[in-house]
Amino acid sequence: MQSALRTAIALAVLCLPLAAADRGPHKVKTERGVSTEMRDGVELIADIYRPDGDGKFPVMLQRTPYNRDGARSSGPILASHGYVVIIQDTRGRYDSEGDFYPFLNESNDGYDTVGWAARLPYSNGDVGMFGGSYVGATQMLCAMAAPPNLKAIFPYVTASEYYDAWTYQSGALMQWFASSWTSGLAADTLRREVARRARLTDWAFQLPVEDYKLMSLPEPDEIAPYYDEWVKHETDDGFWKRWKVSDHYSQMNIKGLHGMGWHDIFLKGSIKNFTGLRASAKTAEARENQRMLMGPWAHAGTSPEGKVGDVVFGKQAVADMNQITIDWFDYALKEKRNKFATDAPIQLFVMGENVWRGEQEWPLARTQHTRYYLRSSSQTRGGVLSTEKPASEAPDRFTYDPANPVRTIGGRLCCGDAIPPGPWDQSSNEGRDDVLVFSTPPLEQAVEVTGHIEVELYASSDARDTDFTAMIVDVDPDGYARFLTDGIVRARYRKNTSKAEPIVPGKIYKYTIDLWATSNLFKKGHEMRVYISSSNFPRFNRNLNTGEQTSNATAIVAARQMIYHDAEHPSAIVLPVIPR
After folding, report:
1. Which end of the chain is more exposed for a tag (fewer CB within 10 A), N or C?
2. What is the CATH code for 368-578?
């Protein structure tokens, strides 16, 4: 738990790789433990770093559940460049009053805090917000409320809603994130609850003396009641709609820099925030001032040499987050003509080639959507990926046993280091009987894939419900299978995630598996490889194949799966190929 918590705290400020920006010209004054009252009387606590001198300055605001102390080094650096930097503990976290429940109070508390920050005597009234992961959520939820003084945001590695691609993906619970993140948060909540329950003078009367109670511990469900709520609400119902940021883009009049990583757990939502605001923000100025920074990052820090997972992308993959924050708000709040005024609005990192490139739109207009069909092969290495359509081919078969699921190896994960995120070699899963492997021959020329990826899968199962998973990897001549992106679909939610629709055992259905997005150059001599299976655990919770709702389900049934790839059922992966 402590490891997960330390990771979560680090993510509040870092999330993307961090290098130190130079200090600016201003000396900095620090005010700690500054209180401000929310509309319901709850007091929230912040630290303020500001230029020590006369004048009024724009505000950089960060609202974090991970302990405002995490900004003690970065806060003074940012403030020295002419900003009032406010780092606030969110409601129910660390020194702030109230009870923490994810998302519930962030719109109102954000609105109230932005207004308070704008009225400070040394503030010029313009406020920007910044930070990643849940700290990005505090920005997006605040922007939903449209506080008039909020002019710009810098959310990174965060989501656009909190059902899809935060808690669930195509109906499957993102179990590792939901459980590990909650465990990390629970440490501070437990500390607060133990202190609240303390009755030291009463316990002092206890006899014999050694039976002194020491502390009163709450039940685990009392520490994070929202975890059970998330599991119970496995459909995209009204419970989630109140926090669906993507429904509110048209109300937002803000400039936005959206940072994201190809290996991040919230990539889909980060892209959606950029494209949604660029298309639908309230004013033309806001729509024209959306920027996107897409690196090879995971939901964790990057080493000085640019290592993510077990892949070194080079120093060009290391971002100076303090400097990017300063440059962005210099442009968005101070109207300086810097790189954000002159560079292409989209900066993306092409893996494999390991270079940055500027683009004007997303998805790229020159994309050639190319189907690589899943084909049978008599070779022992597995099936084939081919641009040629299949004719008459027998289906592939495997048995998915929830008691022995395919284990997650890296990829889009958070939180903690028990299962490290990022690109890792996937080849150790290739020998399993429940993993189908489809590969191109070694490429005769390099192929760039940049954009959204889907698998169109024709499959049947003898169970009442099941999952189908897909993953694409880049295989080098030595057999190293580098993770690129993956996806899942829960059969009963194959049409939509608002209502479960059972499948008929034995019936063939077409499933669309959303693999989100990537940017990768498959070099000459490399292979494109796709894995098809029915589990990726614990990244996603196991489908027990019974058709029961996830909550309270324990019965396990093995499912016999059939994957079809013939003229009538042309299963394929659809790749966004970029011509060169």
Report:
1. C
2. 2.60.120.260
Alpha-carbon distance 281 to 278, whole Å? 6
Catalytic (active site) residue 133: yes
Residues 6 or more apart in contact with residue 211 via CB below 8 angstroms: none
Q: Note the pTM of the prediction, 2 decimals.
A: 0.94
Is 176 in contact with 538 (CB distance < 8 Å)?
yes
**Residue 107 CA to its chain's centroid (Å):** 20
| Cα-based distances in Å from 260 to 124, 159, 274, 319, 345 | 30, 10, 10, 12, 14
- Distance (Å, rounded) from C-alpha 108 to C-alpha 118? 16
In DSSP notation, 171-186 reads TEE-HHHHHHHHHHHH
pLDDT in tens, 237-260: 999 999 999 999 999 999 999 999
Could you give the CA distance from residue 179 to residue 275 in angstroms, rounded to a whole number?
30
With beta carbons less than 8 A apart as the criterion, state whether 340 and 251 touch: no
Task: For the chain, give the percent of residues with pLDDT over 70.
Answer: 96
Q: Which residues pair with 384 in a beta bridge?
A: 375, 439
Average pLDDT over residues 452-471: 98
pLDDT in tens, 141-167: 999 999 999 999 999 999 999 999 999
Determine what percent of the chain falls in helix, strand and coil, rounding each to the nearest 5.
25, 30, 45
- Assigned CATH for 2-167+239-359: 3.40.50.1820
**Residues 245, 263: Cα–Cα separation, whole Å:** 22
How far apart CA 45 and CA 50 sit, in angstroms, is: 16
**Separation of alpha carbons 455 and 423, rounded Å:** 20
Question: What are φ and ψ of residue 270, in 5° steps?
Answer: -65, -45
Contact of 169 with 486, CB cutoff 8 Å: no
Active site residue 299: yes
d(CA 88, CA 44): 7
Q: Considering 133, 183, 246, 270, which one is annotated as catalytic?
A: 133
Amino acid at 23: R
Amino acid at 208: P
Catalytic hit among 263, 299, 565, 569: 299
Catalytic residue selected from 95, 126, 236, 264: 264
In three-state secondary structure terms, 226 is: helix
State the average pLDDT for the chain: 94
Domain spans, the chain: 2-167+239-359, 175-233, 368-578
Cβ–Cβ < 8 Å for 321, 18: yes
Determine the Cα–Cα distance for residues 387 and 37; give it in Å rounded to an integer. Answer: 62
Of the candidates 303, 8, 285, 17, the one whose C-alpha atom is nearest the C-alpha of residue 137 is 8
